[in-house]
């Protein structure tokens, strides 16, 4: 019988106040491996109380000492790296190699957080006015919360809480109810590293828990990654209740292929961008724009690669190239988009429905490619979040850039070319926050912010990088003046 996940509050694992649960699947086989409680507002209250209790001592802990705990945490993550990756594969379904990347990118943020004694450096300016010195300090904002999606069970939570706690805040994580197991294991390792009780808490649940987080007066800041509709809701509700909010939403990322692009490199990169993690990532390349005469050759190469891409259970075979999608609802939604694309008149050159049967009981959809997609089609405009690639054709680079800039999203876009002038024009004119030149997935490393634009992000300071440090701290400016004699004055 599948066990119900416990909350982590004040350093102790305790049951939720809710008896209702949602299933946690192994998507490769369809079996239920755990259950997540739907949670209650009282669960959030208890977590906030624990975080508030831990905050004074933790915020006054010298940054170098906080860094020491994070260094130990980083080593524990390395020591348990392979088991963490296997856990991600078990509850998410991505390939083991993809899961290793998921964990590695999270560890890189912990490495960044280990530099907090330097990252918290302020400013000092002597004599900003006659006899007055000025300096700027960065102080923690208080209790912070993170609401994370299913598609990166390790990386996205580690985008948030390592930087937040490094800055002296305490943190409440609400992981996706679809993938709670990795988050719990990450928190257990943090406790083992010496993180004091109450600094990092986990509360499981659904929308009711989210609303309780957004409205709780004891929470100062909220970080979120998910769909655009929910990101907008998180931002509007959180800010209306006086919180600072960073909310990363969905995307429709364009990949422009020029006639002078390296055919082999481009094919491999487009396949990885479109079908890596079964297309379940906000940096997935979901639209390829073929410029001029390259279109026919590109379609031929992509269709050939899709035909030999090995799809199967990722927890049994490390040679699998693409795993299942997260649950039956996701599979069915993607299959409906295949029907929509066909009805809209696009040409289906790779049909994932052929692999959508109950192989191993899992939730499988094979790689799917539509050619001759038009801008007005739903498959060109809407985020599908699955292994479906739409290919458009344009005569010029200008036309391709125009197509990409019509999207309401603004996460990432890439160009494949051998011409520097084309690359420069593209990087200057494309309307998104993360740009790749002969790079299929331009997701930034930890030192850079994850900088979505438009409907892909709501807020002012992005997740991770130095903007993450700014988000989890607030500036205090101190002006100081002393008597020239150094002696106290005389009161009469």
Please outline what is shown here.
This protein is α/β, with parallel strands linked by helices and 492 residues long.
How would you sum up this structure, described in words?
The chain is α/β, with parallel strands linked by helices and about 500 residues long. The chain has 2 domains: about 5-250 and about 450-480, Aldehyde Dehydrogenase, Chain A, domain 1, CATH 3.40.605.10; about 255-435, Aldehyde Dehydrogenase, Chain A, domain 2 (3-Layer(aba) Sandwich). It has 16 helices and 20 strands. The protein has helices spanning about 40-60, 65-80, 80-90, 95-115, 115-120, 155-165, 180-190, 205-215, 230-240, 265-275, 295-310, 330-345, 380, 395-405, 420-430, 465-470; strands spanning about 5-10, 10-15, 20-25, 30-35, 125-130, 130-140, 145, 170-175, 200, 220-225, 245-250, 255, 285-290, 345-350, 370, 390-395, 410-415, 435, 455-460, 475-480. The strands form 5 sheets. A 7-stranded mixed sheet has the order 14-15-16-13-12-17-18, with helices on both faces. Helix 3 crosses helix 4, helix 4 (about 95-115) packs parallel to helix 6 (about 155-165) and helix 10 packs across helix 11. The longest helix has 19 residues, at about 40-60. The protein starts with 6 loop residues before the first strand and ends in an 11-residue tail after the last strand.
């Amino acid at each position: 019988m599948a066990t119900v996940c416990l909350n982590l509050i004040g350093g102790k694992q305790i049951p939720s106040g809710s008896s209702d649960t949602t299933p946690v699947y192994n998507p490769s086989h369809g079996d239920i491996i755990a259950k997540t409680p739907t949670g209650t507002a009282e669960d959030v209250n208890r977590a906030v109380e624990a975080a508030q209790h831990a905050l004074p001592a933790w915020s006054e802990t010298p940054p170098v000492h906080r860094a020491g705990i994070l260094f130990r945490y980083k080593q524990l993550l390395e020591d348990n790296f392979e088991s963490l990756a296997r856990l991600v594969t078990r509850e998410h379904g991505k390939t083991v190699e993809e899961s290793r990347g998921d964990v590695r990118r999270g560890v890189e943020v912990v490495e960044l957080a280990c530099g907090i004694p330097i990252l918290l450096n302020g400013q000092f300016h002597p004599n900003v006015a006659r006899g007055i010195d000025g300096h700027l300090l960065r102080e923690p904002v208080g209790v912070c919360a993170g609401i994370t999606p299913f598609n990166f069970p390790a990386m996205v939570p580690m985008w948030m809480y390592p930087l937040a706690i490094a800055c002296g805040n305490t943190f409440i994580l609400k992981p996706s109810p679809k993938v709670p197991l990795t988050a719990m294991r990450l928190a257990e390792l943090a406790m083992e590293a010496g993180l004091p009780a109450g600094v990092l808490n986990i509360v499981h649940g659904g929308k009711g828990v989210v609303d309780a987080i957004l409205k709780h007066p004891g929470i100062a800041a909220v970080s979120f990654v998910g769909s655009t509709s929910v990101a907008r809701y998180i931002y509007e509700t959180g800010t209306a209740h006086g919180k600072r909010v960073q909310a990363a939403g969905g995307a429709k990322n364009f990949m422009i292929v020029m006639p002078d692009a390296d055919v082999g490199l481009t094919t491999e990169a487009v396949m990885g961008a479109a079908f890596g993690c079964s297309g379940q990532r906000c940096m997935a390349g979901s639209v390829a724009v073929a410029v001029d005469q390259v279109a026919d050759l590109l379609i031929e190469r992509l269709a050939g690669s899709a035909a030999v891409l090995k799809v199967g259970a990722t927890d049994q075979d490390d040679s699998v190239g693409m795993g299942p999608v997260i649950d039956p609802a996701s599979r069915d939604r993607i299959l409906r988009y295949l029907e929509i694309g066909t009805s809209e008149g696009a040409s289906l050159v790779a049909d994932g429905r052929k692999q959508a049967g109950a192989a191993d009981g899992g939730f499988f959809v094979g790689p799917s490619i539509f050619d001759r997609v038009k801008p007005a089609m739903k498959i060109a405009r809407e985020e599908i979040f699955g292994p479906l690639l739409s290919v458009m054709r344009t005569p010029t680079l200008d036309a391709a850039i125009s197509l990409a800039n019509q999207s309401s999203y603004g996460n990432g876009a890439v160009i494949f070319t051998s011409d520097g002038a084309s690359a420069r024009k593209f990087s200057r004119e494309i309307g998104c926050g993360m740009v790749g030149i002969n790079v299929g997935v331009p997701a930034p490393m930890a030192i850079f912010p994850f900088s979505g634009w438009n409907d892909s992000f709501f807020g002012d300071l992005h997740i991770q990088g130095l903007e993450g440090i700014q988000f989890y701290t607030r500036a205090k400016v101190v002006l100081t003046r002393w008597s020239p004699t150094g002696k106290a004055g005389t009161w009469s």
